[in-house]
Amino acid sequence: MQDTAPSMMQDSAPSTSARAAAGAAGAAVALALSELLTGLLGAGSSLVEGIGEWVIDVSPSALTKFAIEVFGQYDKPVLVVSIVLVGLVAGAVLGVLSKHGSWIPIVGFALFGVFAAYTGASHPDISAGVAVLVAAASAVVGLLVMWRLLSLAVQSPDGEEGEAASPERRALLVGLGAVGALAVASAGVGRALLGRAKIVAAGRNEVVLPTPRLAVADAGAEASFALEGLSPIVTPNDEFYIIDTALTVPRVDLETWSLTLSGLVDRPIELRYEDLLDMPMVERYVTLCCVSNEVGGDLIGNAKWLGVPLEDLLTRAGVQQGADQIVGRSVDDFTVGFPTEVALDGREALVAVGMNGEPLPFDHGFPARIVISGLYGYVSATKWLSDIELTTWDAFDAYWIPRGWAKEGPVKTQSRIDLPRNGASLEAGPQRIAGVAWAQNKGITRVEVRAGDGPWLEAQVSEPLSKDTWVQWLLDWDAPAGNHLISVRATDATGMTQGSTYYPPRPDGAEGYHTIRVTVA
Ligand SMILES: Nc1nc2c(c(=O)[nH]1)N[C@H]1C(S)=C(S)[C@@H](COP(=O)(O)O)O[C@H]1N2
Ligand SMILES: [Mo]
Q1: Residues 298-318: pLDDT tens digits?
Q2: 240 lines ligand 1 (CB under 6 A)
Q3: Sheet bearing 269-271, strands edge to edge
């Protein structure tokens, strides 16, 4: 080891790695404190949430779609982790730059605080005051923690940087450990508090659903083939796909919630949850699917919905001449838009409160959502519904329209192979090929399956629950040895058979044959 000259005063300043660690720890504290404050206040959104929702909002839809495709149901956790990591790295960079002047981290944390306050305050659900308060407190405390750690990191003048036993180094490590543990604990406590508070406040546990005026029978044995690996004809709530732009699921409080009918109506109305439950209810099976569903994808499910026909609400409010678009708006300002006509042409179009015999799960739109047979979710199925506005077609474009998706979103007739799985190895001889097919508001009349260039073979189709639901199909296949591509196509009640040309989901829904490859030996 070299002799250290006393003149090397630089050595008394923290090392670069100590600065980075202190900065990252300061950022961790800022993020964690905002979780804790949000939890204690029982309202608002934390820094991570606010920024996350802002990212979702400004992301080009190609990116959102990419995230859904690559990360599937994990797109939101991945976003959250990325924001935390970027935050920590930014904190580390500010820590390192503090070498060039203590104003740099001050400005950095301040900018971060302003940005976080802005993203939080631009959320419709959150008061600007709360957002500013939480952001400011978090940024200031984060900065103070960073300072404190930096002062712990000041090295002794003889510069034993590499030496684990140095008391300064130990103080820094202990400080970092304590700060890290505290940050994780407070973030956890904040999350737990907020989750509990919101679930209790929502009042979903106390809801007793009314009996429908028109009930539907439970799906009988003829409605489905009992086959392992085939999608059940009714999708259980906890297996139903989830797609939305909400980073944290809105927990709507029934005490404060109401549904309004507004815009071009003769009698604007406002309904509380009880008022809605007092209206005559119907029960309907409707298959819901997402426009982002790829050929062969699983962003589709079938449920028994309980709700008020949209037409009844429109009659009560009185639709004015020229009101040719209905906009469904959610508590978090997501919007859909569809032609007024579809709510009046006799198809199933509900404001739903129940899903498979339960109040709507939070993830699926409690307390109320729209469900319309034959339209993709992005133009119809508003969850956490707060307002139904009658307007004109040209006056408003709903959430996904400026993001490059078609203004009208009728569901395309499609079919999917559930079994065998793509890439399966099968034994030669009798095999079963099975799956689902859908053409909501039309109905499926035929499903055909083909192996390689062979003839199209007609599959057996389950008894449809309604023309609004998918059906299962099944083909007994005498599998010859070899590699095979197996494709499926469906025909709907208008006589239209799916075409072979592939179209991607954007802008108006994927099309093409779902094809799998199997090896038969
Ligand atoms: N409030 C709100 N409602 C929404 C969305 C949303 O992002 N926010 N996404 C829509 C889309 S794109 C689809 S496909 C369906 C999905 O409903 P699910 O999550 O219950 O399956 O909800 C629709 N309703
Ligand atoms: Mo969707």
Answers
A1: 999 999 999 999 999 999 999
A2: yes
A3: 269-271, 259-263, 385-391, 325-330, 335-339
